[in-house]
Amino acid sequence: MGKGRLEAFSDGVLAIIITIMVLEMKVPHGTSWDSLKPLLPVFVSYLLSFIYVGIYWNNHHHMLQAVHSINGGVLWANSHLLFWLSLTPFVTGWMGENHFATLPVALYGFVLMMCGVAYYFLAHCLIDLHGKNSNFSKALGNDRKGKLSVVIYAAGIGLCFVHPMIGFTLYVLVAMMWVIPDKRFESKGAV
Prior knowledge:
The structure is a single chain. This protein is an all-alpha fold. The chain contains 9 helices and no strands. It has one domain (about 5-190). It catalyses: K(+)(in) = K(+)(out). It is a multi-pass membrane protein. Belongs to the TMEM175 family.
Protein backbone atom coordinates (compact mmCIF):
# COMPACT_ATOMS: atom_id res chain seq x y z
CA MET A 1 0.00 0.00 0.00
CA GLY A 2 1.10 3.57 -0.58
CA LYS A 3 2.56 5.74 2.15
CA GLY A 4 0.82 9.05 1.34
CA ARG A 5 -2.03 8.71 3.83
CA LEU A 6 0.35 7.64 6.59
CA GLU A 7 2.50 10.71 5.99
CA ALA A 8 -0.50 13.05 5.85
CA PHE A 9 -2.04 11.58 9.02
CA SER A 10 1.27 11.78 10.89
CA ASP A 11 1.83 15.38 9.80
CA GLY A 12 -1.66 16.29 10.99
CA VAL A 13 -1.19 14.65 14.39
CA LEU A 14 2.16 16.37 14.90
CA ALA A 15 0.64 19.73 13.96
CA ILE A 16 -2.13 19.20 16.50
CA ILE A 17 0.42 18.25 19.18
CA ILE A 18 2.29 21.52 18.65
CA THR A 19 -0.97 23.47 18.66
CA ILE A 20 -2.07 21.91 21.95
CA MET A 21 1.30 22.68 23.51
CA VAL A 22 1.20 26.36 22.61
CA LEU A 23 -2.42 26.71 23.75
CA GLU A 24 -1.37 25.42 27.17
CA MET A 25 0.75 28.55 27.67
CA LYS A 26 -1.55 31.00 29.41
CA VAL A 27 -1.31 34.71 28.66
CA PRO A 28 -0.22 36.69 31.75
CA HIS A 29 -2.58 39.30 33.17
CA GLY A 30 0.11 41.92 33.71
CA THR A 31 1.88 44.12 31.18
CA SER A 32 5.36 44.20 32.70
CA TRP A 33 8.37 41.94 32.25
CA ASP A 34 7.73 40.68 35.78
CA SER A 35 4.39 39.26 34.66
CA LEU A 36 6.27 37.00 32.21
CA LYS A 37 8.69 35.65 34.83
CA PRO A 38 6.32 32.93 36.17
CA LEU A 39 5.91 31.64 32.60
CA LEU A 40 9.63 30.98 32.12
CA PRO A 41 9.51 27.29 33.20
CA VAL A 42 6.44 26.75 31.03
CA PHE A 43 8.16 28.38 28.05
CA VAL A 44 11.39 26.41 28.54
CA SER A 45 9.35 23.19 28.68
CA TYR A 46 7.46 24.21 25.55
CA LEU A 47 10.67 25.11 23.71
CA LEU A 48 12.30 21.73 24.38
CA SER A 49 9.13 19.86 23.45
CA PHE A 50 8.69 21.90 20.27
CA ILE A 51 12.26 20.99 19.31
CA TYR A 52 11.55 17.30 20.01
CA VAL A 53 8.36 17.26 17.95
CA GLY A 54 10.28 19.00 15.16
CA ILE A 55 13.04 16.40 15.36
CA TYR A 56 10.54 13.55 15.11
CA TRP A 57 8.67 15.23 12.25
CA ASN A 58 11.91 15.85 10.34
CA ASN A 59 13.34 12.35 10.83
CA HIS A 60 9.96 10.69 10.19
CA HIS A 61 9.79 12.60 6.90
CA HIS A 62 13.30 11.56 5.86
CA MET A 63 12.69 7.95 6.85
CA LEU A 64 9.43 7.69 4.91
CA GLN A 65 11.02 9.27 1.84
CA ALA A 66 13.29 6.24 1.73
CA VAL A 67 10.46 3.71 1.46
CA HIS A 68 8.04 2.91 -1.34
CA SER A 69 5.37 0.99 0.50
CA ILE A 70 3.95 0.26 3.92
CA ASN A 71 1.83 -2.49 5.42
CA GLY A 72 -0.45 -3.02 8.41
CA GLY A 73 2.47 -3.57 10.78
CA VAL A 74 3.98 -0.25 9.76
CA LEU A 75 0.61 1.48 10.27
CA TRP A 76 0.39 0.11 13.81
CA ALA A 77 4.02 0.91 14.58
CA ASN A 78 3.45 4.46 13.35
CA SER A 79 0.32 4.74 15.51
CA HIS A 80 2.39 3.53 18.47
CA LEU A 81 4.87 6.35 17.85
CA LEU A 82 2.08 8.91 17.50
CA PHE A 83 0.52 7.70 20.76
CA TRP A 84 3.67 8.46 22.73
CA LEU A 85 4.21 11.75 20.92
CA SER A 86 0.61 12.74 21.69
CA LEU A 87 1.45 12.59 25.41
CA THR A 88 4.06 15.32 24.92
CA PRO A 89 1.67 18.23 25.61
CA PHE A 90 0.57 16.68 28.91
CA VAL A 91 4.05 15.99 30.28
CA THR A 92 5.32 19.31 28.92
CA GLY A 93 2.61 21.23 30.74
CA TRP A 94 2.99 19.23 33.95
CA MET A 95 6.76 19.73 33.99
CA GLY A 96 6.59 23.48 33.27
CA GLU A 97 3.70 24.23 35.61
CA ASN A 98 5.50 22.46 38.46
CA HIS A 99 8.85 24.19 37.86
CA PHE A 100 10.77 21.04 36.93
CA ALA A 101 9.84 19.00 40.00
CA THR A 102 11.20 15.46 40.20
CA LEU A 103 8.24 13.33 39.16
CA PRO A 104 7.09 15.54 36.25
CA VAL A 105 10.65 15.65 34.84
CA ALA A 106 11.01 11.88 35.25
CA LEU A 107 7.66 11.26 33.51
CA TYR A 108 8.67 13.67 30.74
CA GLY A 109 11.81 11.57 30.25
CA PHE A 110 9.77 8.37 30.25
CA VAL A 111 7.58 9.70 27.44
CA LEU A 112 10.68 10.77 25.49
CA MET A 113 12.21 7.33 26.02
CA MET A 114 9.04 5.61 24.82
CA CYS A 115 8.99 7.86 21.72
CA GLY A 116 12.53 6.68 21.01
CA VAL A 117 11.55 3.04 21.49
CA ALA A 118 8.47 3.48 19.27
CA TYR A 119 10.58 5.11 16.53
CA TYR A 120 12.97 2.13 16.74
CA PHE A 121 10.01 -0.28 16.33
CA LEU A 122 8.74 1.70 13.34
CA ALA A 123 12.14 1.61 11.67
CA HIS A 124 12.41 -2.14 12.23
CA CYS A 125 8.93 -2.76 10.85
CA LEU A 126 10.10 -0.96 7.72
CA ILE A 127 13.24 -3.14 7.62
CA ASP A 128 11.08 -6.27 7.93
CA LEU A 129 8.94 -5.04 5.03
CA HIS A 130 11.79 -4.01 2.72
CA GLY A 131 14.40 -6.60 3.71
CA LYS A 132 17.67 -6.58 5.61
CA ASN A 133 19.64 -5.97 2.40
CA SER A 134 17.51 -3.03 1.24
CA ASN A 135 18.89 0.46 0.88
CA PHE A 136 16.59 1.44 3.75
CA SER A 137 18.19 -1.10 6.07
CA LYS A 138 21.67 -0.07 4.98
CA ALA A 139 20.84 3.60 5.57
CA LEU A 140 19.50 2.90 9.06
CA GLY A 141 22.60 0.87 9.89
CA ASN A 142 22.92 -0.13 13.52
CA ASP A 143 21.23 3.14 14.63
CA ARG A 144 23.78 3.89 17.36
CA LYS A 145 22.40 7.37 17.92
CA GLY A 146 18.87 6.04 18.40
CA LYS A 147 19.97 3.37 20.86
CA LEU A 148 22.23 5.81 22.74
CA SER A 149 19.30 8.24 23.02
CA VAL A 150 17.15 5.64 24.79
CA VAL A 151 20.02 4.84 27.19
CA ILE A 152 20.49 8.55 27.98
CA TYR A 153 16.75 8.98 28.56
CA ALA A 154 16.77 6.03 30.96
CA ALA A 155 19.77 7.50 32.81
CA GLY A 156 18.04 10.88 32.92
CA ILE A 157 14.91 9.36 34.42
CA GLY A 158 16.93 7.71 37.17
CA LEU A 159 19.05 10.79 37.81
CA CYS A 160 15.92 12.92 38.20
CA PHE A 161 15.63 11.37 41.64
CA VAL A 162 19.07 12.74 42.50
CA HIS A 163 18.18 16.16 41.06
CA PRO A 164 15.57 16.82 38.36
CA MET A 165 17.81 19.27 36.48
CA ILE A 166 20.33 16.48 35.85
CA GLY A 167 17.64 14.52 34.01
CA PHE A 168 16.42 17.61 32.19
CA THR A 169 19.98 18.42 31.11
CA LEU A 170 20.36 14.91 29.67
CA TYR A 171 17.10 15.35 27.71
CA VAL A 172 18.50 18.60 26.28
CA LEU A 173 21.71 16.73 25.38
CA VAL A 174 19.74 14.15 23.38
CA ALA A 175 17.85 16.92 21.58
CA MET A 176 21.17 18.53 20.68
CA MET A 177 22.36 15.19 19.24
CA TRP A 178 19.32 15.08 16.94
CA VAL A 179 18.72 18.74 16.07
CA ILE A 180 20.76 18.35 12.90
CA PRO A 181 18.52 16.33 10.56
CA ASP A 182 19.38 12.68 10.09
CA LYS A 183 20.89 12.45 6.59
CA ARG A 184 21.37 8.68 6.54
CA PHE A 185 18.28 8.10 4.41
CA GLU A 186 19.05 10.91 1.97
CA SER A 187 22.55 9.58 1.36
CA LYS A 188 21.32 6.08 0.48
CA GLY A 189 18.42 7.18 -1.69
CA ALA A 190 15.08 5.49 -1.96
CA VAL A 191 14.59 1.78 -1.37
